[in-house]
Amino acid sequence: MSLSAGAVRFRPGDRVRVRAAWPPGHVRTPWYIRGHEGVVERLCGLYGNPEQLAYGLSGEPRQPLYRVRFAQHAVWPGYQGPPSDTLDIEIYQHWLEPASHADG
Predict the structure, then answer these.
(1) DSSP letter at 60?
(2) What are phi and psi for residue 46, nearest 5 degrees?
(3) 83-87 contacts: CB < 8 A, separation 24 or more?
(4) How many CB atoms neighbour CB 39 within 10 A?
(5) For residue 28, how many other CB atoms are within 10 A of its CB?
(6) Which residues contact 23 (CB under 8 A, 6 or more apart)?
(7) In angstroms, what CA-CA distances link 46 with 18, 29, 75?
(8) At 75, phi and psi to the nearest 5?
(9) Nearest 5°: CA angle at 52, between 66 and 1?
(10) What are the pLDDT tens digits along the chain (104 aa)?
(11) What Rg value do the Cα atoms of the chain yield, rounded?
(12) How far apart are CA 72 and CA 79, in angstroms?
């Protein structure tokens, strides 16, 4: 898989926040994760933008897709499982921004 270095904004270990955009429209980003912070676990590759493809558009330019890991207790108020429990979600780059308290 050939990736354009300029297109990829985040690296594994980067802290990110999911945009809290509204109205939702046709998106692949779950509403319950919007506004939450997580850590990039990996870059999955570059893919056509599904929000455009759903409407018969080209999906170009291709978007980086990341697997982002969230602490369960940070996502679900009152979560009673172990503190180490996580939730991994694949999210396109245009839904992510650097976390406000990220280093560097």
Answers:
(1) P
(2) -110, 130
(3) 87/33
(4) 18
(5) 14
(6) none
(7) 18, 16, 27
(8) -90, -40
(9) 40
(10) 455 555 899 999 999 999 987 766 557 788 899 999 999 999 999 998 887 887 888 888 889 999 999 999 999 999 999 999 999 999 999 899 999 864 44
(11) 14
(12) 7
Choose among 18, 15, 13, 44: nearest CA to 31: 18
Distance CA 92, CA 52 (A): 12
Residue where the block lists tokens 């690296």: 11
- For the purposes of burial, counting CB atoms within 10 Å of the CB of 38, is it exposed (0-12), middle (13-18) or buried (19 or more)? buried
Q: What are phi and psi of 96, to 5 degrees?
A: -115, 150
User: Length of the chain in residues, anyone?
Assistant: 104
